[in-house]
């Protein structure tokens, strides 16, 4: 992605990254495309924050993706002066902190750098994502009282406070009367054990649809959620006598989620 139109405005989409091209195109690529359409006067650039993924793609597949530092250097070389940064991170956690630090360190060549919020940044975002969950996911699969929806978030064991958004989303769904939607995390709170206990406590659930509460349906979705190992979410749910059906679809595929990122970029400060 380069400044072919010689504009001085640049839009930098910052993502964690993924090794899976198909889900990348459907999620990160779709978000970037929506942002590019919403900001036609900005040249679009991409940066990924996972150095492991960047290194693996280069070594194993010959695919180059810029680090944040490389993307900013590229933008400066292209004559970009006004930078609009939109992270595709779900939470305002470690990746966002690293991003802001690098942006501060490399700000000199630019006249301005504005940063849009991550997906779940406010209570209004929680409300918006709860509507997306109910309208675009729950309504499509949970058509009877015996079906449930399980959302698998990533979570953060190193920053327990950031996990609060998962509890807030669970409460928001319950407050609306949806008691067959359960939120858990791979690496934080609430846990899969919490989800299993809630499924059993409900009593009348015989089938659970399981989908990632993540921007990308990558390794966690394919392995931790839907993998063949006995400790995958799907198999552990089956282990308590409930059939489990995986939905391999990242949040980035949903048009309403893409629009939320556009809204955050529009409100960037």
Describe the structure.
- With 269 residues, the protein is of the alpha/beta class.
- The chain has 2 domains: 124 residues, 3-Layer(aba) Sandwich (Rossmann fold); 128 residues, Rossmann fold.
- It contains 11 helices and 8 strands.
- The chain has a 4-stranded parallel beta sheet, with helices on both faces. It has a 4-stranded parallel beta sheet with strand order 6-5-7-8, sandwiched between helices.
- Helix 2 packs across helix 11 and helix 6 packs across helix 7.
- The protein is elongated.
- The mean pLDDT is 94.
Annotation keywords:
269 residues, alpha/beta, Rossmann fold, four-stranded parallel sheet, 11 helices, 8 strands
Would you tell me which CATH topology of the largest domain applies? Rossmann fold
Structural class: alpha/beta
Strand arrangement within the widest β-sheet reads 2-1-3-4
Whole-number count of domains? 2
> What is the terminal separation in angstroms?
24 Å
Tell me what the CATH architecture of the largest domain is: 3-Layer(aba) Sandwich
Q: How many β-strand stretches? A: 8
Q: Write down the overall geometry.
A: elongated
- Estimated share of beta-strand residues: 15-25%
Average predicted local confidence, pLDDT: 94
Helix content: 40-55%
CATH class assignment of the largest domain: Alpha Beta
Helix count, DSSP H or I runs of 4 or more residues: 11
The profile of the biggest β sheet is:
4 strands, parallel
Radius of gyration: 19 Å
Task: Enumerate the spans where pLDDT stays under 50 for 5 or more consecutive residues.
Answer: none
């Amino acid at each position: 992605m380069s400044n072919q139109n010689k504009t001085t405005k640049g839009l930098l989409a910052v993502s964690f990254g993924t090794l899976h091209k198909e889900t990348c195109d459907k999620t990160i690529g779709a978000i970037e495309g929506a942002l590019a359409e919403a900001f036609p006067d900005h040249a679009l650039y991409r940066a990924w924050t996972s150095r492991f993924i960047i290194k693996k793609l280069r070594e194993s597949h010959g695919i180059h993706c810029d680090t944040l530092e490389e993307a900013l250097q590229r933008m400066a070389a292209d004559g970009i002066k006004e930078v609009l940064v939109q992270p595709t991170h779900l939470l305002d956690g470690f990746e966002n902190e690293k991003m802001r630090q690098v942006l501060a360190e490399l700000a000199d060549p630019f006249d301005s750098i504005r940063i849009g919020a991550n997906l779940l940044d406010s209570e209004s975002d929680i409300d918006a994502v709860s509507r997306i969950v109910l309208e675009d996911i729950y309504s499509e699969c949970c058509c009877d009282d015996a079906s449930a929806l399980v959302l698998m978030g990533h979570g953060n064991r190193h920053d327990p406070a950031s996990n609060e958004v998962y509890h807030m989303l669970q409460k928001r769904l319950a407050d609306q009367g949806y008691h067959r939607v359960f939120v858990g995390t791979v690496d934080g709170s609430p846990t899969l054990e919490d989800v299993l206990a809630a499924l059993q406590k409900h009593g009348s659930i015989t089938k659970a649809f399981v989908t990632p509460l993540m921007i990308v349906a990558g390794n966690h979705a394919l392995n931790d959620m839907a993998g063949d190992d006995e400790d995958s979410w799907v198999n552990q749910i089956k282990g308590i006598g409930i059939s489990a059906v995986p939905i391999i679809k990242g949040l980035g595929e949903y048009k309403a989620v893409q629009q939320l990122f556009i809204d955050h970029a529009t409100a960037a400060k």
